[in-house]
Amino acid sequence: MDYQINRFFNNFYRLFKIYVFYLAVFTLFRLWFLVRLGDFKELIKLPGDISLAFLRGMQFDTMIICYLLLIPFLIYLAGIFISSKEYTRKSTSFIIWYTGIMLALSLVILFIDQYYYNYFQTHISVIIFGLADDDSQTVMSSVWTDYPIIRIAMAWLGLIFAFKYYLKRINARPDLNFNVNSNLKVASVIILMGIYFLGIRESLGTYPLRIEDSHVSDNKFINFLTINGIYAFKNSYRERKQSENIVENELKNLKALGYESPASAARDYFVADSLAHISDETAFEKLFDKTPYNPQLEKNKPNVVFVFMESMSNHNMDFDSEQMNVLGNLRKHFKEDVLYRNFVSSGNTTIQSLEYLMVNSPISLSQSKYRFTQFPSSVAIPFKNAGYQTNFITGGKVNWREMDKFAAKQRFDRIKGMKHIQAELAKCEANKWGVYDEYLFNYVYEQLSAEKEQPKFFFVQTTTNHTPFELPLSYKPYKINIADSLKEKLLVKEELAVKNLNAYQYANNSLGIFLDKIKNSDLGRNTIVVMTGDHNNLMLFDFDELHQLQQRGVPLYMYIPEKYKPQAALDTSVFASHKDVFPTIFNLALSNQTYFSVGNNLLKATDADKAKYFAMNIGSSTSFSDYAAVNYSTLSAFYNWQNKNTKVLGKVRRSAEADELLRRSRANYALSMFYILDQISKDKKQTKGRKLAQL
User: Fold this and answer.
1) Which of 275, 396, 466, 492 is within CB 3.0–4.6 Å of 496 for a Cys-Cys bond?
2) Is the four-CA dihedral 402, 403, 408, 410 of positive or negative sign?
């Protein structure tokens, strides 16, 4: 037994050295994040916080590494009871291969995490599983064109060969002989087991190290440094599994926000009303409003085209000039018509924002088992009830993320995509993601121009402004000269940045040409066009905690023909988001129609009631108003406007305005979620009832 215990001590020492190599690699990636993304002017003021972030990061790393090396540890532990030298030989060979493979896989995830930030400005999140549901070949094409795959592969191989050499050196050294009595050896084995168990938990308390422990500073970026890519991936996978039980898990999340029922959320949201004894059913009824009766709209129903633009960055619009023309033909329309700039998207991915706009859902449903559920909150329903033909038109594949099935259940009459457009439109060109935007808009224009027996509503989704940023060969871009001051801030090489901005320009220019055609035809007198973006483009610039409005910003544009314009002047300085888009459209276009709304009608915005207008980005749990900003998922992230002109935030502990925004944001989110979950539950009961009736 002494021989086996002695062998265990030596093997544990070798395992510790492997741990040190792994830890060095994890720390190297953390340093890479710091050097590549850190704002050293700010970070130099917080050396203590940075040190704490690296120490806490080592704890997260140690936890992951201990899990990765658990099998070798158990093999070495079992060797105490096996004297066979053959066991030693085979186990050593296995562990060499095993630790090499684990390192290789870990490096893949760490590299993905490093470059995942370039697109989503976060560690690996649950969104990554959605990428697998996209067209895999197209996604890989984008990865190949946008990221330095060859250099990454070389670095990956270099680290693996370095580890191989390191292992060879470790195993070449002779065993140490531990000359202590047997009782002390046994006690030492138990202590080492305890140390390893502590390494897995990283805590002596009730709970092991958790994601909440990553918060070590008031600085958002420093907290970001604590987590490694593998821990982030593990967390994301857990979220993915939890999403399979949407109702139960989301109800728990709502409870954590302080809401046990829809009625409790309604009391917070409709604070001006007397709701002391409101029921859940009444709370849901209050989510429906009605447009005023309008005899002009009854007689002259306008066509409505809602355009959902891919990666329509509000921030990038700020750089538009003759030297860096990012708007193209859209520029003049932005000057002529209604444009909201204090505006954010509901989600940070296309599918999040799309489903929120279509059915007011704060969670993604189209790829879940609930994609066949019909939601009364669908934006198509008020148009259907008003006698409209409803159309969902995407430039991409119509079955992307199961949207063909989902949209069909939401009362859209016609659902058309890439293949339909190519079949019906002569000489229609496309890239990997879908038909180019110019052809998509030509198709919509043709459908609008066709003889009509009823007014038409179009929900139009563009795709061209998407990595790998392929454009028609016939397109001649306007000038894009990036100023030196901007070049210093780029997250990517200038060549890729220009390619990105050319695609942004092309999409905007295509929309501008479409608007020209509308305005210069008879359609210009009876067609309302509304446009917003699905999310900001996060590839070019990094955004710190104080520039969250820029990080989440998309524009809202409206072309309103003269006879449909509201009489009162519009206040376009109010803060708003996707929740406010369709309540505004319905009141512009429809007479006496009931609609679902957790947002505001922007046509009524005035200085007097500015406090009730606010913007919500559900993807980051962040809200903005004219007075404050908050992260409504916590009680620690409160902001004021350090500079209202440039929209730069200032971190504060608390304020009455921030408290008010926190309450309204949480209640708004809770009401949306409660309603969607209620519809899911009702659909499940109805489905169960139908199945029982068939027996």
Assistant:
1) 492
2) positive
Tell me: do 422 and 499 sit in the same domain: yes
Q: Flag whether 115 is in a domain.
A: yes
For 547-643, strand residue ranges (E) read: 556-559, 576-577, 594-596, 614-617, 622-625, 629-631, 638-643
The predicted-structure confidence for 336-384, as pLDDT tens digits, reads as follows 999 999 999 999 999 999 999 999 999 988 877 788 899 999 999 999 9
Return d(Cα 659, Cα 648) in angstroms, integer: 19
CA–CA separation, 543 and 551 (whole Å): 6
Compute the Cα dihedral for 516, 582, 572, 437 and give only its sign: negative
Looking at the domain assignment, is residue 658 inside a domain? no
- Domain finish residue from 222, 240, 258: 240
Flag whether pLDDT at 11 surpasses 80: yes
Q: What gap in Å lies between CA 628 and CA 653, rounded to an integer?
A: 12
The answer on 366 and 229 residing in a single domain is no
Structural domain boundaries, residue 426: 304-596+603-620
Residue the block writes with tokens 């105490």: 80
What is the spatial distance between Cα 542 and Cα 551, in angstroms, rounded to a whole number?
8
3-state helix, strand, coil in the chain (%, to 5): 55, 10, 35
Tokens of 402: 């199961």
Per-residue pLDDT of 128-150, as tens digits, reads 776 655 555 666 667 777 778 89
Side-chain-side CA neighbours of residue 372 (13 Å): 5
If one counts every other C-beta atom within 10 angstroms of the C-beta of residue 321, the result is 12
Taking residue 539's Cβ as centre, other Cβ atoms within 10 Å add up to: 20
Q: Are 222 and 45 in contact (CB under 8 A)?
A: no
The total number of structural domains that make up the chain: 2
* Beta strand 338-340 pairing with 389-394: unpaired
CA 105 → CA 64, 108, 298, 403, distances in Å? Answer: 13, 5, 63, 33
Q: What is the mean pLDDT of the chain?
A: 91
The count of residues in the chain is 695
**Do 368 and 467 have their domain in common?**
yes
345, part of any domain: yes
- The predicted-structure confidence for 292-345, as pLDDT tens digits, reads as follows 999 999 999 999 999 999 999 999 999 999 999 999 999 999 999 999 999 999
Task: Give 173-211 pLDDT, tens digit per residue.
Answer: 887 777 767 788 889 889 999 999 999 999 888 778 888
Give residue 440's pLDDT band: very low, low, confident or very high (50, 70, 90): very high
Q: In this structure, are 562 and 420 located in the same domain?
A: yes
Q: Same structural domain for residues 234 and 348?
A: no
Please count the helices (runs of H) and the strands (runs of E) in the chain: 27, 16
The reported pLDDT for the residue numbered 695 is 53
* Judgement on whether residues 36 and 166 belong to the same structural domain of the protein: yes
Q: Is the pLDDT of residue 520 over 70?
A: yes
Instruction: Report the percent of the chain where pLDDT is more than 70.
Output: 95
Which tokens sit at 235?
Answer: 């967390």
Q: Where are the alpha helices (DSSP H) in 278-431?
A: 280-285, 295-299, 314-317, 331-336, 350-359, 380-385, 403-409, 418-424
Rounded to an integer, what is the distance from CA 437 to the centroid of its chain?
23
Q: What is the mean pLDDT of residues 650-658?
A: 88
Identify whether residues 310 and 234 lie together within a single domain. no
Q: Is residue 255 part of a domain?
A: no
Q: What is the pLDDT of residue 37?
A: 85
Q: Are residues 231 and 312 in the same domain?
A: no
Cα 578 → chain centroid: 15
Amino acid occupying residue 607: D
